Amino acid sequence: MNSEIEVQAKVKKIVDRYEGDKSALIAILQEIQDEYRYLPKEALVFIQQEMDIPLSRVYEVATFYDAFSLKPRGRFVVEVCTGTACHVQGGINLLETLERHLRIQCGETTERGDFSLERVGCLGCCSLAPVIRVGDDIQPYLTQNKIPRILRTYMAKKQGRKRG
Fold first, then answer.
1. Over the range 124-155, which residues count as b (16 or more CB within 10 Å of their CB) and which as e?
2. Which pLDDT score, from 0 to 100, does residue 161 have?
Protein backbone atom coordinates (compact mmCIF):
# COMPACT_ATOMS: atom_id res chain seq x y z
CA MET A 1 0.00 0.00 0.00
CA ASN A 2 1.19 3.51 -0.73
CA SER A 3 1.71 5.97 2.08
CA GLU A 4 -0.13 9.27 2.11
CA ILE A 5 3.14 11.10 1.44
CA GLU A 6 3.88 8.92 -1.61
CA VAL A 7 0.37 9.50 -2.95
CA GLN A 8 0.70 13.25 -2.44
CA ALA A 9 4.07 13.34 -4.23
CA LYS A 10 2.71 11.47 -7.27
CA VAL A 11 -0.47 13.54 -7.37
CA LYS A 12 1.52 16.77 -7.07
CA LYS A 13 3.53 15.84 -10.17
CA ILE A 14 0.32 15.17 -12.08
CA VAL A 15 -1.36 18.40 -10.93
CA ASP A 16 1.79 20.41 -11.70
CA ARG A 17 1.81 19.12 -15.30
CA TYR A 18 -1.59 20.78 -15.73
CA GLU A 19 -0.39 23.93 -13.95
CA GLY A 20 -3.32 23.74 -11.55
CA ASP A 21 -5.85 24.27 -14.34
CA LYS A 22 -9.23 23.51 -12.74
CA SER A 23 -10.72 22.55 -16.10
CA ALA A 24 -8.23 19.66 -16.20
CA LEU A 25 -9.81 17.91 -13.21
CA ILE A 26 -11.09 14.96 -15.26
CA ALA A 27 -7.72 14.47 -16.97
CA ILE A 28 -5.96 14.62 -13.59
CA LEU A 29 -8.36 12.05 -12.14
CA GLN A 30 -7.78 9.81 -15.17
CA GLU A 31 -4.02 9.88 -14.62
CA ILE A 32 -4.44 9.07 -10.95
CA GLN A 33 -6.82 6.23 -11.82
CA ASP A 34 -4.25 4.88 -14.30
CA GLU A 35 -1.55 5.03 -11.63
CA TYR A 36 -3.46 3.34 -8.80
CA ARG A 37 -6.36 1.56 -10.60
CA TYR A 38 -8.67 3.60 -8.36
CA LEU A 39 -8.86 7.07 -6.81
CA PRO A 40 -7.38 7.00 -3.29
CA LYS A 41 -9.11 9.26 -0.77
CA GLU A 42 -5.75 10.89 0.01
CA ALA A 43 -5.39 11.85 -3.66
CA LEU A 44 -8.81 13.48 -3.78
CA VAL A 45 -8.18 15.47 -0.62
CA PHE A 46 -4.78 16.55 -1.94
CA ILE A 47 -6.31 17.68 -5.27
CA GLN A 48 -8.83 19.75 -3.34
CA GLN A 49 -6.01 21.43 -1.40
CA GLU A 50 -3.65 21.92 -4.34
CA MET A 51 -6.22 23.15 -6.83
CA ASP A 52 -8.53 25.00 -4.46
CA ILE A 53 -11.56 23.04 -5.67
CA PRO A 54 -14.23 22.15 -3.11
CA LEU A 55 -13.88 18.52 -2.03
CA SER A 56 -17.57 18.02 -2.81
CA ARG A 57 -16.85 18.98 -6.45
CA VAL A 58 -13.89 16.59 -6.68
CA TYR A 59 -16.06 13.74 -5.33
CA GLU A 60 -18.94 14.77 -7.58
CA VAL A 61 -16.77 14.29 -10.67
CA ALA A 62 -15.08 11.16 -9.30
CA THR A 63 -18.41 9.46 -8.62
CA PHE A 64 -20.27 10.65 -11.71
CA TYR A 65 -18.15 8.80 -14.28
CA ASP A 66 -18.21 4.99 -14.33
CA ALA A 67 -14.56 4.95 -15.42
CA PHE A 68 -13.55 6.13 -11.96
CA SER A 69 -13.55 3.92 -8.89
CA LEU A 70 -13.16 4.89 -5.24
CA LYS A 71 -12.12 1.37 -4.29
CA PRO A 72 -9.17 -0.63 -5.62
CA ARG A 73 -9.79 -2.49 -8.86
CA GLY A 74 -8.04 -5.53 -10.16
CA ARG A 75 -5.35 -5.43 -12.78
CA PHE A 76 -7.96 -6.68 -15.26
CA VAL A 77 -11.46 -5.26 -15.05
CA VAL A 78 -13.97 -7.72 -16.51
CA GLU A 79 -17.15 -5.99 -17.63
CA VAL A 80 -20.09 -8.23 -18.50
CA CYS A 81 -22.62 -6.69 -20.85
CA THR A 82 -26.19 -7.25 -19.74
CA GLY A 83 -27.86 -4.98 -22.26
CA THR A 84 -30.85 -6.34 -24.16
CA ALA A 85 -28.97 -8.19 -26.93
CA CYS A 86 -26.44 -9.71 -24.52
CA HIS A 87 -29.11 -10.54 -21.96
CA VAL A 88 -31.15 -12.44 -24.56
CA GLN A 89 -27.99 -14.27 -25.70
CA GLY A 90 -27.00 -15.37 -22.17
CA GLY A 91 -25.09 -12.45 -20.65
CA ILE A 92 -26.38 -13.23 -17.16
CA ASN A 93 -25.13 -16.82 -17.49
CA LEU A 94 -21.69 -15.45 -18.39
CA LEU A 95 -21.76 -13.26 -15.28
CA GLU A 96 -22.64 -16.23 -13.08
CA THR A 97 -19.91 -18.35 -14.70
CA LEU A 98 -17.33 -15.61 -14.12
CA GLU A 99 -18.43 -15.30 -10.48
CA ARG A 100 -17.88 -19.05 -10.02
CA HIS A 101 -14.49 -19.14 -11.75
CA LEU A 102 -13.17 -15.99 -10.07
CA ARG A 103 -14.79 -16.87 -6.71
CA ILE A 104 -16.12 -13.34 -6.29
CA GLN A 105 -19.44 -11.59 -6.72
CA CYS A 106 -20.15 -8.86 -9.20
CA GLY A 107 -18.65 -5.60 -7.90
CA GLU A 108 -15.78 -7.35 -6.12
CA THR A 109 -12.07 -7.86 -6.78
CA THR A 110 -10.18 -11.13 -6.44
CA GLU A 111 -8.07 -11.53 -3.31
CA ARG A 112 -4.77 -11.11 -5.19
CA GLY A 113 -6.07 -8.09 -7.10
CA ASP A 114 -5.91 -9.77 -10.50
CA PHE A 115 -9.55 -9.33 -11.58
CA SER A 116 -12.50 -7.08 -10.80
CA LEU A 117 -15.92 -8.13 -12.03
CA GLU A 118 -18.51 -5.57 -13.09
CA ARG A 119 -21.88 -5.60 -14.81
CA VAL A 120 -22.55 -2.94 -17.45
CA GLY A 121 -25.75 -1.96 -19.21
CA CYS A 122 -24.38 -1.99 -22.74
CA LEU A 123 -20.96 -2.11 -24.36
CA GLY A 124 -22.29 -1.07 -27.76
CA CYS A 125 -21.39 -4.37 -29.43
CA CYS A 126 -24.90 -5.74 -29.84
CA SER A 127 -24.17 -7.55 -33.10
CA LEU A 128 -21.43 -9.53 -31.29
CA ALA A 129 -23.59 -10.60 -28.34
CA PRO A 130 -22.99 -11.83 -25.81
CA VAL A 131 -19.79 -9.95 -25.00
CA ILE A 132 -17.51 -9.10 -22.13
CA ARG A 133 -14.75 -6.52 -22.06
CA VAL A 134 -11.49 -7.24 -20.29
CA GLY A 135 -9.55 -4.01 -20.07
CA ASP A 136 -9.78 -2.64 -23.62
CA ASP A 137 -10.42 -6.04 -25.25
CA ILE A 138 -13.90 -7.08 -26.38
CA GLN A 139 -14.54 -10.83 -26.22
CA PRO A 140 -17.39 -11.52 -28.70
CA TYR A 141 -19.85 -14.40 -29.19
CA LEU A 142 -19.05 -15.84 -25.79
CA THR A 143 -20.21 -19.07 -24.30
CA GLN A 144 -19.71 -20.25 -20.74
CA ASN A 145 -17.13 -22.83 -21.81
CA LYS A 146 -14.86 -20.11 -23.26
CA ILE A 147 -14.53 -18.30 -19.91
CA PRO A 148 -11.74 -20.48 -18.39
CA ARG A 149 -9.52 -20.02 -21.47
CA ILE A 150 -10.04 -16.25 -21.43
CA LEU A 151 -9.15 -16.03 -17.74
CA ARG A 152 -6.03 -18.19 -18.30
CA THR A 153 -4.98 -15.89 -21.15
CA TYR A 154 -5.11 -12.82 -18.92
CA MET A 155 -3.35 -14.58 -16.05
CA ALA A 156 -0.58 -15.49 -18.50
CA LYS A 157 -0.36 -11.82 -19.55
CA LYS A 158 0.00 -10.89 -15.90
CA GLN A 159 2.86 -13.32 -15.59
CA GLY A 160 4.50 -11.98 -18.75
CA ARG A 161 3.77 -14.99 -20.95
CA LYS A 162 1.54 -15.30 -23.97
CA ARG A 163 -0.94 -18.10 -24.00
CA GLY A 164 -3.88 -19.05 -26.22
1. ebbebbbbbbbeeebbeebeeeebeebbebbe
2. 52
Read off φ and ψ for residue 115, nearest 5 degrees: -130, 145
Q: pLDDT tens across 71-89, in order?
A: 999 999 999 999 999 999 9
Strands across the sheet with 137-139, in order?
115-120, 76-81, 132-134, 137-139
What is the per-residue DSSP string for 118-143?
A: EEES--S-GGG-S-EEETTEEE-S--
Pairwise CA distance, residues 6 & 62, whole Å: 21
DSSP sequence for 30-58: HHHHHHHSS--HHHHHHHHHHHT--HHHH
Nearest to 95 by CA among 49, 138, 142: 142
**pLDDT, tens digit, 9 for 90 and up, residues 35-82:** 999 999 999 999 999 999 999 999 999 999 888 999 999 999 999 999
Predicted model pTM: 0.77
Q: How far apart are CA 28 and CA 11, in angstroms?
A: 8
* pLDDT reported for residue 162: 47
Instruction: Please say whether the beta carbons of 43 and 5 come within 8 A.
Output: no
